[in-house]
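Subject — a protein and its fold

Tokens — whole-number codes for backbone shape
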Amino acid sequence: MIYQNFIKLNLSLANVLIEVLKNLINSRARVKAFDLVAMYQARKEFYEKYFKTGYLKFEANQYKAVENTDALILLTEWKTFRQPDFKLMADTMKKLIVFDGRNQYDPEQVSETGFEYHGISSEEVNTVNF
């Protein structure tokens, strides 16, 4: 039973990720994403036109996914994402904004590295100018 519940939970999380991606793309955002599990499911869910037009691109790793981006949106709790190299990310991102959908980062630590931090559910997220 635990295995089945784990599979259902992972599928639920993948569905949430897919819905977030769809909302961003439908708002005309260009999305670069990396998630070892969800991106395979997402590949099945999205029209090929999203990939061909550049609205959605899956990257080989988490650092490629933030290159030349306006913001990082964290929606998963994989160990890979728990202690990122914020300095490396700051050197490659256009704007230093983090939306932490899992509230796994220390807001002070992230802010000390120059990022604007928004913990989703931990505070009201105000409009952010890109």
The beta strands are 31-33, 56-58, 72-74, 97-100, 116-119. The chain has a mean pLDDT of 81.
